[in-house]
Amino acid sequence: MAVKIALTGNPNSGKTTLFNALTGSNQFVGNWPGVTVEKKEGKLKGYQEVSIIDLPGIYSLSPYTLEEVVSRNYLISERPDAILNIVDGTNIERNLYLSTQIMELGIPVIMAVNMVDVLEKTGDVIHIDKLAKKLGCEVVTISALKGKGIREAADKAVKLAEKKRAAVPVHEFHQEVEQAISSVEDLLGGEIPEEQKRFFAIKLLEKDEKILEQMKAVPDISKLIKELEDRFDDDTESIITNERYEYISSILGECVKKGRKEKLTAS
Ligand code: BGO
């Protein structure tokens, strides 16, 4: 049976380097339908039936740029069998912002912390076991440039895709935000698959207009939004963003130890 694995990550996280290493010359390059954003797909070396889709590099699943729209629509509508989320280990704080959102899509996720060769030089240490626990997904380290760990990462992504067990986010927002999320989930009809309900509920609370446009039946959640905004004295989009950053800080505090050596550039 054909398996699709999507590569996601921030721009400059090493996605292209990893994609090229995993697929070799077995690539098809074109454009995503209707837009001039490059679409790259390839067969995973060593597997007959596994395709890797290199999604455009993005910082968030709140779609402001064309790249974010393309990546998000693919993840919501096409539903790859697994996501290989590549993270620049030298810039982990910024990269984790996207990762926390990817965990909410109800798709199996494996995280590959890239640039481990640079981390070895700077002396920074990322405790991947702790990171895996804090995020709720498997985490591996790789150097896409040196080819280190990439085979193992790909093999694990294939296994995950075959198991079809969606990532279960361990992150919980503030209790009152969680209550609002679950109230919105209850209002979502059968149009939204069960495993995507959390993602849609969060996006509705964030007043994400593109999600509203994509839904046939939109529940009225204005009262829930107003209650949260009054309680936190902030708009819901900021409440959720702030909570993500708090969560990321707690992850960094526990999982990342900065080395003493000067940070080197990726080369
Ligand atoms: C340049 N280790 C190191 N050290 N570098 C890496 C690794 C790794 O594991 N993986 C990727 N890079 P992309 P996106 C460059 O191009 O794959 C480097 O945007 C340069 N170019 O080589 O393009 C990779 O697809 C001149 O670096 O990322 C590339 O996600 C000087 O990270 C950069 C220094 O990788 C981005 C680097 C002319």
Mean pLDDT: 93
Which ligands, by name, code or SMILES, are bound?
A: 3'-O-(N-methylanthraniloyl)guanosine-5'-diphosphate
The total beta strand count reads: 9
- How far apart are the first and last residues' alpha carbons, in Å? 38 Å
Report the radius of gyration as a whole number of Å.
19 Å
Largest sheet, in brief, is: 7 strands, mixed
Task: Output the number of helix runs.
Answer: 11
By helix and strand content, what is the structural category?
A: alpha/beta
Helix content: 40-55%
Run of helices and strands: EHEEEHEHEHEHEHHHHHHE
Beta content = 15-25%
Strand order across the biggest sheet?
2-3-4-1-5-6-8
Approximate shape: globular
Uncertain residue ranges:
none
